[in-house]
Amino acid sequence: MKFSLCNEVIAGLDFAAQCDMAAKLGYMGLEVAPFTLGDEPHLMSAAEAATYRRQAEAAGIEITGLHWLLITPKGLSITTPDGALRERSIDVLERLVGLCAMMGGTVLVHGSPQQRAVPEGESRDVAMERAMEVFARVAAAAEREGVTYCLEPLARRETDFVNTVAEAAEIVAAIDSPGFRTMIDTSAAGATETEAVANLINTWLPTGRIAHIQVNDCNRRGPGQGDDQFTPILRALHENGYDGVVAVEPFDYIPDGPTTAARSIGYLRGCLENITR
Predict the structure, then answer these.
(1) What integer best gives the mean pLDDT of the chain?
(2) Which of 58, 91, 101, 262 is 20 to 30 A away from residue 122, measured at CA?
(3) What is the gyration radius of the CA atoms in the chain, in angstroms?
(4) Alpha-carbon distances of 2 from 5, 75, 163, 180, 217, rounded to whole Å
(5) How many angstroms separate the CA atoms of 103 and 44, rounded?
(6) What is the pLDDT of residue 132?
């Protein structure tokens, strides 16, 4: 498995310096939040994308993918009753799929909780019908570009739309595209699911519907900075033959981003060494 760092953790550095720090800490890649690259990252040219890719390669790492896809431009939504706004949101997502491929990434993570909320006064079924159109179109784009678009189940404290792996897996089955999968975020799963994260992995990874893992403690800090135990999680991934990306995505950086990034990779590598030695 490949440990990747979500780049917003060290976004105070320029991108080349982010790549250099991640590599020196022992990460194999950066998972990029597009909003850290500018206000309209979906409009980035191929030449600009190639520059970011070269900066990563020069540091000896790769850009593994994109996440937090709809933070910018502002006001996007996949569940809005405004058809024109929904079309704009689809256009942004399709362009980000292309950007991911140009940067050398292989996976996109659709979190963006506020941009997928059920509109006030409307039903979840209506919101789901709109979202399914969006997912079908971005899945087709992902399939064309040879990347995987992952719907992220999020905790109920974050959104009222798609909270469990089982819910997301139903959507994956309905979309029925090799370019569309779901994933597990350990903090969201720990806050919402009724079974342990390791058990979720053992249940869902063999189905082929899980294509990505993000790791963070339920306290929203990095792995090893709270009470959550990650050895069982990494053991489940190892025993199921997972060779994809494990992205470190804390939200609270204690005492700061670089220290959080360093502690997280050190802790995770220690857990993995205990499992595999």
Answers:
(1) 97
(2) 91
(3) 18
(4) 10, 33, 26, 20, 19
(5) 11
(6) 98
Tokens representing 76?
Answer: 């996007």
Specify the DSSP class assigned to residue 119.
P
Contact 108, 65 (CB under 8 A): yes
Count Cβ neighbours within 10 Å for each residue of 69-98 and write b for 16 or more, e otherwise.
Answer: bbbbeeebbbbbeeeeebebbbebbbbbbb
What pLDDT, on a 0 to 100 scale, did the predictor assign at position 139?
98
| Structural domains in the chain plus CATH codes | 2-276 (3.20.20.150)
Give CA–CA dist 225/82, Å, rounded: 42
Q: Is the pTM of this model over 0.85?
A: yes
Q: Is the pLDDT of residue 263 over 90?
A: yes
Residues of the chain with pLDDT > 70, as a percent, come to 100
Asked whether the predicted pLDDT for residue 239 surpasses 90, the reply is yes
Shortest CA distance to 180 belongs to which of 214, 128, 144, 135?
Answer: 135
Q: 13-59: per-residue pLDDT in tens? A: 999 999 999 999 999 999 999 999 999 999 999 999 999 999 999 99
Closest CA to 169 of 185, 181, 187: 181
Within 10 A of 165 (CB to CB), how many other CB atoms are there?
28
Q: How far is the first Cα of the chain from the last one, in angstroms, to the nearest whole number?
A: 15
> How many other C-beta atoms can be found within 10 angstroms of the C-beta atom of residue 277?
5
Of 80, 210, 198, the C-alpha closest to 151 is 210
The band of 277, judged by pLDDT with boundaries at 50, 70 and 90, is confident
What is the residue type of 103? M
Amino acid in the structure at residue 263: R
